[in-house]
Specification:
It contains ten helices and 13 strands. It is of the alpha/beta class. The protein has one domain: Ribonuclease Z/Hydroxyacylglutathione hydrolase-like (Metallo-beta-lactamase, Chain A), CATH 3.60.15.10.
């Protein structure tokens, strides 16, 4: 049987801003019969269900079994209780595997404690439930790490998001390689992790739009995020097959303005990512 090509599905392209048309940041890498969920922004399970109904059955909630968290900012983790509990209620029968930076184990334990009454009632009340589906297998990552699954290798690598520990993830199969940046500013050695990928999914902010913000916000975004011109420079060096934007911080400018910032210095294929896009 021919190996199916790995796919990238955008489950949420948003930011902390409450934009109704964009769920919080989350992406799925679908390989074979398995889906790997990177980050759990608000709305993640409903977006996964929507994707499953349009031809990607691996994203059916009961099949969501692996989560990788880039960092513990709220916009990337507010959907973690959702993905822990909702698929279990919808008859997930296997433990949920969760990878993330130090602190993820405490976050998971706190969520289980917060929903203790719900879990106890579902386990021991009248509702049919499966004890394995509410088990959490948590692995904390504190350095560059390789995670292996049949037919796919995942490299977790540290990125630069200020003082918060944050990781990007590189997925490699025999047919395709994808990199998901997480939240990051440019950092030394970034090219080593990005180079040679077929798809680079990267966060970005508009340098032009940032000029309208206060000095404090300018300092913050310049320190912990990647501007359009900076991303254009990185992409020109590593030459991904496709550059896909997510977690786009426009700061009041139009989408076309952000794309122009990148295309002025980068000649490769670039796409403005939207929820439920598939690449």
């Amino acid at each position: 049987m021919m190996e199916s090509q790995m796919k990238l599905v955008l489950l949420g392209t948003g930011t902390p801003n409450a934009e109704p048309e964009r769920s919080g940041p989350s992406a799925a890498v679908v390989a074979g019969e398995r889906a790997f969920i990177v980050d759990c922004g608000p709305g993640v399970v409903r977006r996964a269900m929507e994707a499953s109904r349009t031809g990607i059955p691996q994203l059916s909630p009961d099949r969501l079994g692996v989560v990788l968290i880039t960092h513990l900012h709220s916009d990337h983790t507010l959907g973690l209780p959702d993905i822990m509990l909702t698929p279990w209620v919808l008859e997930r029968k296997q433990p949920l595997e969760i990878y993330g930076p130090p602190g993820i184990r405490g976050m998971v334990d706190s969520i289980l404690d917060a929903w203790w009454e719900d879990i106890e009632e579902r386990l021991h009340g009248l509702q049919p439930s499966d004890e394995n589906g509410i088990r959490m297998e948590v692995t904390e990552i504190d350095r560059e790490t390789s995670i292996d699954y049949p037919g796919i290798e995942i490299e977790a690598f540290p990125v630069d998001h200020g003082t918060m520990k944050c990781f990007g993830y590189r997925f490699s199969s025999s047919r395709r390689t994808m990199v998901i940046s997480g939240d990051t500013a440019p950092f030394p050695g970034i090219e080593d992790h990005y180079r040679g990928c077929d798809i680079l999914l990267h966060e970005v902010y508009s340098a032009e739009g940032l000029q309208t913000r206060s000095e404090a916000w300018k300092n913050y975004h310049r320190r912990v995020h990647t501007s359009g011109p900076e991303l254009a420079s990185i992409a020109s060096d590593v030459r991904p097959g496709l550059l896909v934007l997510y977690h786009q911080l426009l700061h009041g400018v139009a989408e076309e303005d952000l794309l122009r910032e990148i295309r002025e210095a980068y000649s490769g294929k670039v796409f403005y990512g939207r929820d439920l896009d598939v690449y």
